[in-house]
Every structure is written in C-alpha cells, then in structure tokens.
Design a protein that fits this description.
The protein is mostly beta strands. The chain is about 10% helix and about 40% strand. The protein contains five helices and 34 strands. Bound molecules: zinc ion (ZN).
C-alpha cells in the first residue's frame, strides 16, 4: 500500500474535481511526467539516472537552476510522485537562462538506491571550484561535487547532504554490487584529471579514499598534448566492474573536442585488481602508454570516437558500443579470443544517436537508441540475433514531431514498463525547459496534465526577458544537435 503525500493527493483531487466541473471526469493525461527538465537535463555519462527498487522507479534529472530533481513512479498503482528538488547545484544561475551557452550541464545527478532503500544522488560538480583547495588528481573546474540521500528509505520528499565524497568530481557514475557495496566512479576535476573511484561498504554513509584508475599527464610524445580520458563504468559478471573508454588528446595549453581510439578493462572487486580483457594485470593508474599496449580495442586514427555503454554477457565477455561522427553507433564484441570487427548499428545524420543496450544472449542484443529523421524524433529498438553482424530496427517506444530526444543509460534493474528516462527537446522554443518521459514497452508512462505541469509562471517570466539575438538563435539551433559532453 502506498500512501500519497498530502500535497500530491490534494493536487490530484483538485484536478479531478476541476475536470468533473467541466463534465470530463476522466483525467486528461499527457505522456510526459514533468515539463521542468532544464538545459541538457540528462546524459548517458552521469548514470544511472534511474533505478527500479521494490516496485517503484526513481528518476533524477536537472530541473530549474540546474538543481537535481527526483520523481518516482509506483508501478502497482500507476501513480507518479514528485518531482521534488533534492539539492542545490552551486553552478546554477538565476533568473532562468535563455541562452543554452550559459548553462554548464555537468552537474547533472546520477542516482542509486542502496540496499536499505535510501536513494542517493551525486551532482553539482564540474571538477570543483579552485577555492576548494588543492586537487591531488587533476585541474580545478567549477562547482562542487555533492552527495545527498533521502531522509527515509523509499521516500523522495526530504533529502539531506552527506559530506563524504571528494568535492572535485564530475560525471558521477554509480556501480552497485550484489552484496550492496557502492562504487562511485568519476573524473576528479576538469578535463585534465584522473578518473577515480571511491568505495562504500556501509550503504554510502562513508567512503574509502579515492583510487585513481586512469591517469592524466603531459603526453610522452608531445609537450603540446595532454593525455586524458572519457570513461564509462558498469557492473560486469559477478563481482567485477567494466570500464570502456576513449582517449582525449587535449591541447596543452587550451582544450579541444578531439577524442579517439576505443579501450576496455575490468576490475575484480574482490581484491581491487584490474586486468585487460585477456586477464593480464594492469598497474594503476593506467597511463596512455599502458592503455595502448594492453587495453586498446581499436586505434581509430584521425576519426573521432566517443564513449557509449558497456555490458557483459553470461560468459563475462564484454559488448560495447562507441559513437562515431554523424551519429553513427558501432558495436564491439569480445568473443573470448578477439574483438570482432565493429559493426554499424545505425546512424542519424545530424541527429545524435545515443542510448544503451540489453544482452539477451551472447548473439542476441537489443539497443535502445534515439533517432531524428527529418525533425521527427524517436527512441526505439535496434536488434541483432547474429552477434552484431546485422542489425534490424525494432519498435519505437516514443515518437514525436519537432522533437530531439536525449537518452540516459537504461534504468537499473528496470521494469519492462520503465526502461529509460529521456528528455524531449523542441528546437523551436524560446526557453530551455524540456519535457521528461519515462518510456518502456508500453510507451511513455503517462500522467494527469495538471500534475505534469511544474513550471508555474516561469515561461511568462521568460517571455518578459529581452528578445532573441542572432547569436542566441544560432545557439538554439545548434542545441538541437544534442551535444552533451563538454570539457
Ligand atoms: Zn581537454
């Protein structure tokens, strides 16, 4: 039995009676659960953004002021709760911004539910403000990495801050083992910083010090290049953690958007050791030289690559996708002896493909990807039954005109009705608020319109701001390209 908070119940009954006054006793439903996703409200990089636990799917995203917001869907009753603001992002700006270039977006939340049912978020950081002190693992950035936890298990209504992780992080990624141990992976600073993790064996109440996994340093080849990484961490088979990553040859000084190559390695959580896919031991932190020698999947040369997601099959063998130019998604698989030649799953010229996938068996994989065809956005399945040699398009879970979708990693422990949290962006609008959808095998999980309406008078206030400039209009159009991972 789930008890609705009084305020939600009041809103619900107020809506119901309002509708009945007009003779329409069936509540008008909309397919989004809120309209207050803000900026780039989510990404596959901060993950998971959602988890299904004890019959409830909890979701987290950036709302007004780039603050973290949480909502919950109760599967047994079909009711939505929230969204509720769970903290304050130190990089947030007031009043509402209308120029997307003014938002940092790196402070998006990642969410995990511990074994006791408390919900945890880490958000607010882009490497940490220089005023926070010395960053031992990298360069300073902006904001502050903040960890909050729900005051009660399974209850999103109240939150408290736990000052127990490094303030210098960005790109928060939670991995939860079957025994309840939590690993928080993140980049320890701005773009020139190590990737590290901190481990908790007490449900996130305390964390061991940082362990550096991937090393940043001036390149051994060129003083004008700095070795850095973009990495993605996730459970492997049993008590292992997979890392898939790309190299970022950062300009020194300065920064550029270049990334290339594809890499894989894994951690044995029983002793904290790391090996490559063949099982050879790696010394930590892994340098560019060691990565090239031991963990490289493919050298892509001048062709840019970007991280996707990684999962292992029942044999413990990794399957990975990486993203390439023109929205091309390529699938990589280790068959026990070698990395099979990557295959193209799909491309979306200018559309920006991203998403995540499920492994049904070593040869059967289903990918849930966004797509944009002539302005019509969708998120749908791509399937292979022959180990990735060929891919065919499956059903879409959502399709909307004039909309570009942004995806997250799949909901952890997902219910089939709630597989992925996505944001729908309309490139023609004069503001940065976006509708948020929780989609599954039955499509988006709908909600009464009045409950999903969370903006109050914000759009009226935005209309009162000075009118658009050519620069801003150009940026707004560019935003439809869904570029997410800044430095
Ligand atoms: Zn850089």
């Amino acid at each position: 039995m789930t008890i609705l908070p009084a305020s939600t119940a009041r809103r619900f009954f107020a809506l119901l009676s309002a509708l009945c006054l007009y003779g329409a006793c069936a509540a008008a439903n909309v397919d989004y659960f809120t309209d207050n996703g803000y900026g780039n409200p989510l990404s596959t990089m901060q993950h998971p953004a959602a988890e299904h636990f004890n019959g409830v799917t909890y979701v987290a995203y950036s709302g007004p002021h780039e603050d973290p917001y949480v909502a919950a869907y109760v599967h047994a009753t079909g009711q939505w709760l929230g969204p509720v603001q769970a903290g304050v992002n130190p990089m947030g700006k007031s009043p509402d911004q209308i120029d997307p270039g003014e938002l940092d977006n790196h402070g998006r939340p990642a969410l995990v539910v511990d074994r006791q049912g408390y919900i945890h978020l880490v958000f607010g950081g882009h490497g940490g403000d220089p005023g926070l002190g010395q960053n031992k693992f990298g360069t300073p950035g902006k904001g502050r990495f903040i960890h909050v936890v729900s005051a009660k298990p399974g209850d999103i209504s109240a939150w408290k801050t736990l000052d127990n992780v490094s303030p210098f992080g960005t790109y928060s990624q939670w991995v939860k083992l079957a025994n309840g141990d939590l690993y928080l992976f993140y980049r320890h600073g701005s773009h020139r910083s190590d990737w590290v993790y901190q481990k908790s064996t007490d449900h996130g109440r305390t964390f061991a010090p940082q362990v550096s996994v991937l090393k940043h340093k001036v390149s051994a080849d060129k003083l004008t290049v700095h070795d850095t990484w973009y990495a993605w961490f996730e459970n492997g088979r049993d008590d292992t953690i997979s890392a898939s990553y790309v190299y970022h040859p950062c300009a020194n000084p300065g920064h550029n958007a270049h990334r290339n190559n594809t890499y894989y390695m894994r951690m044995d959580c029983r002793d904290g050791s790391w090996t490559n896919v063949q099982g050879e031991r790696l010394a930590l932190p892994v340098t560019k030289e060691a990565a090239d020698r031991l963990t490289l999947i493919q050298a892509t040369g001048k062709e840019k690559s970007n991280h996707g997601t990684c999962h292992v099959d029942a044999e413990g063998r990794p399957h990975i996708f990486f993203r390439f130019p023109h929205g091309e998604v390529r699938y990589f698989r280790w068959d026990g002896k070698a990395w099979l030649p990557p295959t193209k799953v799909a491309d979306a010229r200018g559309g920006g493909h991203d998403g995540d996938f499920l492994i049904d068996s070593p040869l059967r994989v289903r990918m849930l990807l966004d797509k944009n065809e002539a302005g019509v956005g969708s998120v749908g399945w791509w399937n292979t039954a022959d180990g990735g040699r060929t891919w065919t398009r499956g059903p879409d879970l959502i399709t909307l005109p004039d909309t570009g979708f942004e995806t997250t990693a799949l909901v952890r422990n997902a219910h089939p009705d709630a597989r992925m949290l996505v944001a729908g962006k309309n490139a023609n609008q004069e503001h940065l608020y976006h509708r948020m959808y929780l989609i599954g095998d039955r499509g988006p999980l709908s909600r009464p319109a009045a409950e999903a309406s969370q903006l109050g008078d914000r759009l009226e206030l935005i209309k009162a701001l000075p009118k658009g400039s050519p620069k801003r209009d150009a940026k707004r159009k560019k935003r439809a390209g869904l570029a997410n991972d800044e430095p």
